[in-house]
Design a protein that fits this description.
141 residues; mainly alpha; 71% helix; binds protoporphyrin IX containing FE; transmembrane helix
Length: 141
Amino acid sequence: MTQEIIVKASSLFLRTGALAAIFGMGLGISMGITQDHTLRSVHAHINLVGWASMFLFGLYYHVVPAADSKLAKIHYYVALPGFLAMMAGVAGLMLGNGSFEPLAIVGSLVTFASMLIFAWNVFSTTKSSAASKPAAVAPAR
Ligand code: HEM
Ligand code: HEM
């Protein structure tokens, strides 16, 4: 018998954020050791777009179950490739390979699009105080 395992967008974002922190800090430590700060911006954005933003998305979806919807899953599957493309593109650029520019641009725009999806979700789920309460304690209607 197969059992469907449903992974929520909150878990996906929290896990990706935690992994990004490991990669971002690892890169920061290696930059400190080698005294080569070429990838400073990659380090900064792995930590800020990956760790800080994604963990924040995950926390919002965890605290507001009404927001942890299909739209939140779409948000994740737009945000992840956007983030990876942007980081790969910026890393290539920083390392002096101009052919990575389109990847950095597309990654940035997709990352921006993912933020628009999140903003839409936040506005939809903060319309009433009931919507932003955890489902378990929301008044039954
Ligand atoms: C083990 C942890 C970390 C280490 C060893 C580390 C190391 C570094 C190093 C060596 C630089 C380059 C500084 C320079 O070129 O002037 C840097 C820059 C930066 N780091 Fe980290 N970092 C760590 C964690 C973080 C975290 C958690 C964040 C954000 C949440 C972060 C955000 C930044 C930013 C924004 C910059 C760019 C600052 C600027 O351009 O002035 N770092 N970090
Ligand atoms: C679509 C998303 C984003 C794009 C395209 C973008 C683009 C950029 C660019 C072009 C720079 C200048 C880099 C340089 O001078 O080397 C920069 C710097 C910076 N950005 Fe972003 N950014 C994005 C998202 C974010 C987010 C979400 C945060 C914070 C939560 C952030 C925080 C910073 C900081 C602190 C710096 C200065 C550190 C550095 O020079 O790397 N950015 N960003």
